[in-house]
Structure to design on (670 residues):
């Protein structure tokens, strides 16, 4: 049981993540259900019924998970190809990849899909250990441009190629 | 029209040059994604949805079916050569197949996997041809109560079977159901769980959830725990073929695998993992030399590979006849049907015979194509693994962005993609299975609609839900699936004091 002794406070706290998240979701649904009619005159149940039922079950599940954690359960990550779950979490890799996922939210609408996508592309390659950011942006631009042309040709609307340039 | 006539009519459609081309595209794409890590058939079909909107549903479903079958073939290649199953159904193949490859028998392993997949896939498709119209006849008596019971059965079985813990399976299911009720209630017109955000009034798009949970979640997860060990691909020399002795040892496991895979695939939450595992256990028990298992027994590749392909054919039966998805990929295909305004179920066979039979016929053709694509060309597909990982995962993100940005060019949806992606990351960190969430999201609205209908017909009497033997039977099975593990759990804990576990 050396691992239990070694586990840092942050690690012990993180075990509560799943039950707490499930409880919050359950509470949100229960709160919403109070604003919705539960019954309808002719149909028996109204729009609130399902929300209430799901909220109740999620709350119960959250409590059950919390009980498991109290008894010492640890929710291990699952196996995935290319991942080594024995390693501790790499925040740098995670945050870089997350930047690649979230930056397009702000970028794509303004600078267009190809350029916004290329930035995301380079960030993900960086998160996966590539050390050539400029080359990756260039490769990304080629990939996103080809994708843009191909999908636009197939009838998928991806907006302008480079809106600031007016095309 | 007899089944035979209908199937011949289907071949007339599937053999049209364009449809043959689509089948080839689907099979090649399926094999490729089966080989590549991080991307599976469910995600691929999701990303194809916006592209296929402009196609006829028949062409689209011919591609989807090719991807579904092809992924099973491709997954076995990587299992054997690098010991990483591309698909969950190929996990068992990795056990024996990789050992065979290490012993210099890679060619025989690849051959028995590909030929076994072909044999079992064809048997499975033949059984599908016979079973589907028959089951769809039975399904005509299904009313709202029966459909509700069917959805409940799908919910419980998916949550119980998939993943390591029932509790976490249920968390995933109810997360999916919570997403399903988001948006405007269709009966009363009231907004539910929209939190005042106008973009959420139409609910959350299935495509966004799928792409986020599968692709973005995977990208974030692998980035946070990147493996530093280099991949070792085992070289295979000589033609991919089997000796006479290999054939003798393989044909019975193929047939037994098909016999296990198809019926289990038909059952709710049967999927392809359980039949492969059962087939492996069965072959080991029947083998005259069980000591070979674990050291590269060809039966341990032949049986499970046959089982997973037959299971794929089995999964198509409840999907086409009842509109009931029993795996993540089938759930996406159901969503695709809904995109076209089609409702799979008994009426589909009479209202869209050219679609149903064209797709079934193309399954036969696709299996043959896959045999040709995989047997002589296995080495070519392995070359795909030469794509550097940074660029592979970056490419997956780009296609995910296309899939979401292409729907409505809204930054709100890109934000939803990111947020749900982080949730998908959280699911992976705690080993919460993703498939139950998808089944909940896709079947949730159907379950609620049918429940309301059933209660409206029964004038609010809840007993109406169990008034027919079919509905009562389905609900009983669903309850047993949940209760039996729970009773066992309580029994093992009886010595301890607490009774709170019943929660």
């Amino acid at each position: 049981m050396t691992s239990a002794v070694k586990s840092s406070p942050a690690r012990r706290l993180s075990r509560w993540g799943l039950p707490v998240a499930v409880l919050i979701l359950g509470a949100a649904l229960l709160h919403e259900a109070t604003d919705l009619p539960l019954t309808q005159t002719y149909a028996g149940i109204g729009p609130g019924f399902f929300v209430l039922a799901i909220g109740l079950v999620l709350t119960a599940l959250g409590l059950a998970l919390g009980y498991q954690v109290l008894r010492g359960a640890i929710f291990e990550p699952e196996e995935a190809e290319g991942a080594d779950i024995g390693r501790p979490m790499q925040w740098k890799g995670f945050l870089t990849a997350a930047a690649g996922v979230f930056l397009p939210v702000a970028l794509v609408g303004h600078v267009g899909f190809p350029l916004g996508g290329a930035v995301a592309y380079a960030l993900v390659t960086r998160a996966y250990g590539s050390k050539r950011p400029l080359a990756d942006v260039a490769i990304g631009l080629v990939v996103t441009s080809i994708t843009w042309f191909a999908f636009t040709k197939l009838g998928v609307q991806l907006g302008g190629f480079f809106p600031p340039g007016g095309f | 029209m007899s089944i035979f006539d209908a199937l011949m009519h289907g071949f007339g459609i599937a053999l049209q040059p364009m449809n043959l081309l689509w089948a080839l595209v689907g099979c090649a794409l399926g094999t490729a994604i089966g080989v590549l890590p991080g991307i599976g058939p469910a995600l691929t079909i999701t990303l194809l949805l916006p592209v296929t909107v402009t196609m006829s549903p028949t062409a689209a479903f011919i591609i989807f079916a090719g991807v579904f079958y092809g992924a099973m073939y491709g997954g076995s290649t990587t299992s054997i050569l690098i010991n990483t199953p591309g698909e969950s159904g190929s996990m068992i193949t990795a056990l024996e197949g990789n050992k065979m490859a290490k012993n210099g028998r890679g060619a025989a392993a690849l051959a028995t996997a590909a030929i076994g997949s072909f044999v079992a896939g064809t048997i499975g498709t033949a059984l599908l041809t016979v079973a589907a119209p028959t089951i769809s006849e039975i399904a005509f008596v299904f009313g709202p109560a029966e459909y509700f019971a069917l959805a409940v059965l799908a919910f419980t079985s998916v949550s119980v079977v998939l993943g390591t813990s029932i509790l976490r399976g249920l968390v995933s299911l109810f997360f999916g159901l919570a997403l399903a009720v988001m948006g405007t209630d269709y009966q009363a017109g009231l907004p539910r769980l929209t939190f005042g955000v106008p973009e959420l009034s139409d609910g959350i798009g299935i495509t966004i959830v799928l792409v986020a949970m599968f692709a973005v979640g995977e990208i974030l997860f692998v980035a946070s725990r990147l493996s530093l060990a280099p991949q070792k691909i085992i070289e295979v020399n000589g033609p991919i073929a089997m000796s006479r002795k290999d054939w003798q040892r393989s044909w019975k496991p193929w047939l037994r695998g098909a016999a296990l895979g198809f019926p289990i695939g038909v059952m709710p939450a049967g999927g392809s993992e359980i039949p492969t595992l059962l087939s492996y256990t069965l072959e080991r028990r029947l083998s005259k030399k069980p000591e070979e298992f674990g050291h590269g027994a060809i039966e341990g590749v032949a049986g499970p590979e046959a089982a997973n392909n037959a299971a794929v054919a089995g999964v198509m039966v409840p999907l086409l006849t009842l509109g009931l998805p029993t795996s993540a990929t089938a759930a996406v295909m159901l969503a695709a049907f809904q995109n076209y305004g089609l409702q799979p179920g008994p009426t589909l066979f009479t209202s869209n015979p050219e679609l149903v039979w064209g797709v079934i016929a193309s399954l036969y053709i696709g299996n043959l194509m896959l045999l040709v694509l995989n047997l002589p060309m296995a080495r070519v597909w392995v070359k795909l693994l030469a794509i550097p990982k940074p660029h592979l995962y970056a490419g997956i993100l780009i296609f995910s962005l296309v899939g979401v940005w292409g729907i409505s060019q809204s930054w709100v949806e890109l934000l939803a993609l990111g947020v749900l992606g982080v949730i998908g990351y959280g699911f992976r960190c705690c080993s919460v299975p993703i498939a139950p969430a998808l089944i909940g999201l896709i079947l949730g609205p159907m379950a609620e609609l049918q429940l309301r209908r059933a209660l409206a017909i029964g004038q609010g009497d809840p007993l109406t839900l169990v008034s027919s033997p079919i509905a009562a039977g389905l609900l009983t099975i669903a309850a047993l699936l949940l209760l039996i593990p729970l009773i066992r759990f309580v029994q093992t804990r009886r010595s301890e004091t607490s009774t709170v576990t019943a929660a």
Remarks:
- The helical segments of chain A are 2-6, 9-14, 17-33, 47-70, 91-111, 113-127, 133-153.
